[in-house]
Predict the structure of Xylan alpha-1,2-glucuronidase.
Amino acid sequence: MSGKLRWLWALVPLAGLHAETGADAWLRYAALDAAAARRYVNTLPPVVVVLGNSPVEQTAQRELIRGIRGMLGVTLRVSSTVPAEGAIVLGLDPAVRKAVPGTPAGNPLAEDGYALSLRTAGTARHLSIAGGSERGVLYGTFALLRKIALGEAMEALNEHSAPYAPVRWVNHWDNLDGTIERGYGGRSIFWDKGVVREDLSRVSEYGRLLASLGINGCSINNVNTDPRILTAEYLPQIARIAEAFRPWGVRLVLSVDFGSPQRVGGLATFDPLDAGVAAWWKAKTDELYRAVPDLAGLLLKADSEGRIGPSAYGRTHADAANVIARALKPHGGLFFYRGFVYDHHMDWRNLKNDRARAAYDNFNRLDGQFDDNVVIQIKHGPIDFQVREPASPLFGALEHTNQAIELQVTQEYFGQARQLVFLVPMWKEALDFDMQARGAGTPVKALVAGKVFQRPTGGFVGVSNVGLDANWLGNHMSQANLYGYGRLAWNPDLTSQQIAAEWTRLTFGNDPQVVQTIESLQLKSWRVFEDYTGPLGLQTLTDIVGNHYGVSVEASERNGWGQWHRSDEKGAGMDRTVATGTGYAGQYRPAVAKRYESLATCPDELLLFFHHVPYTHMLHSGKTVIQTLYDLHYDGAVSVEGYVNSWKLLKGRVDERRYAEVLAQLEYHAGQAQVWRDAVNNWFHRASGIADAKGRVGHQPGRIEAEAMTLEGYAETPVTPWEGGSGGKAVACQAAECSAATRFEGKAGWYTVRVQYFDQNNGNARYRVKVGEQVVDEWTASNWVPTQKIDSSSSTRRSVTGIALRPGDVIRVEGTPDGGEKAALDYLEVLPERP
Ligand code: GCU
């Protein structure tokens, strides 16, 4: 074969729509179409030279070859010297300047920053990837590959990029037994049965994903820490994880237990002011650094949700943080102290009590007392990753303390990766929120990056919780949250739209219809989720004392956890004003406090977070609170229904496997949105006694309650909480096989029959739907949802479409229980299909 022919052969796209597991996430390096590939092949030098031999730079070179091979179908030639005709040259900034003729002198690159440039001199063409650090070289390489995947022009390439903040970390809430607290993508990639996994290949693949976003630190064990992590037994194991990450420039972080000096050190105390305790932390830290010399730091959750802390000795958080920070200091390590400190045994009867106040109350008075390698890690809102919270006032208060914002990538309160919710627009609102900490122009992002009060360090932490499942996070769409987190940590000025577009194109390809559809689903998804799970600042109306998944409007009330919304028959919302409430609004700087304090200026979307109002209170929108609640819940459910329809139009444009998996997810999601809609609306309808002006709440067209059907073997059972079941009731099968039948009395025509049933995680019940004697659908309820009960979490919808019905037809659902799952039914809906 001639050289020319070989090129042509190599340019034919390799991939059609073959099945993808999602494991490659946004680093698929899918073959570009022939014309685009040819353009790049003609522009890029065919040779690569890496100037340094550090593992990270070597990784960069390998990644470049891999990416170019995948996208362009050609293999770069590796050379140890820069040939006169040109090369892609990778290396540290000064080395690249020296090696590439004619590179103009410029400002030195920021640490971890990079510069990409293409220079042509005569017939020579050099593309340089210069890094401000070894990591910068790798980040620059990923940036170049991203540009190619996105089809960006290379000809005039000349770009500098620097990370917005030094700290760009992820946290993992992995337990040593391999489970993950609030993880929805399978078991831990790090741990199994109390030890570090033998096979850490998934850890290095994860390191690659993180490096592609510029993430440079990763904690590998739960903040609810098992103290054994600091025993000698674990150090060599931890060192293996550090080794797997090292080629990707990702440094290890450990969560520690504050009681460690006593629990694993055998001391009589863990008092941070005790000299023996300080010495213990120092010796332990030295030992850690002998095992992992590039350890990035340690992380602590103390005095929170049952974790012990300095309060045991009447010491301050600064005392606690500094004792460990001082041990880390000689090694250059950072100590992250979580701002998530609150009392979860608060008296709910006291209307002045307020969990939202806790972070500020605990830390503001200590400002200035923390050592300069301590970072206070602050959740983005004052409560706990709820669907809508204001930005934490603590960001605007700390002037002499390093801080980092904690964002939760794993979708704990956002449908736990079973629903599609793109969190970037929510994070952007927090990051861009102007705290007015020194007059206007002090957004949260600048405060955490230490740019306002000139702090030595700070930045971003994302609770990622990926798992062993092929697609890392439990579904394909959730990957956008990890991608988005990393991109924002590098550059929080990117827009949500830019991030969604990039992610979609890298993950699903450049087909304009695919890009436009997925981008639009992602971009609206947070607000849609908010519409049906907790609008107007109510926070997520979920089972906050249980699985944090299903709907349970009152679960937040009458307990010490402090996620109260105080909705009752008279009104809703929590009075957090200074004038009459908890005073939380006064924790913001005056200009912000004033806006939240007044009903006239408080934004509608946070109204019930700051104010308790009657249901008839008129919003800025001109609608009452109660009617807005009803309407938004209907709007939200309709929108999710729309996701399914939009996705279906992508059939044949997305590979079969991901198409089918996302479709199943969206169909499930649409059913859940309806469950939430009805539950929340029915609850507020009962509480307020105010009818829906549009007559929808309590009147479901075509709905037939299971308990009103002709039952054989099925018995009525209450649903708890009541709003989780239609009419507060369901039927559960008490025999080996049961049936529920109804006679259709409508007009002859085509119908969709929806069966609302309960799919728990403790059995695989079977269902069959018959019209007359004909079986029109059957399935096994084998989904895994976090409940073993008949409740809103297990409530699931099955739609059987295209059913011809005539008056008198008998529709029968047959259920066969399995294990703890009683083949329960809530209702049927028989809905006419449009001709
Ligand atoms: C949430 C979450 C817990 C977690 C805690 C934390 O409350 O539900 O699982 O431990 O946050 O951030 O520490």
Q: What stands out?
A: Residues 181-182, 223-224, 301, 340, 384, 412 surround alpha-D-glucopyranuronic acid (CB under 6 Å).
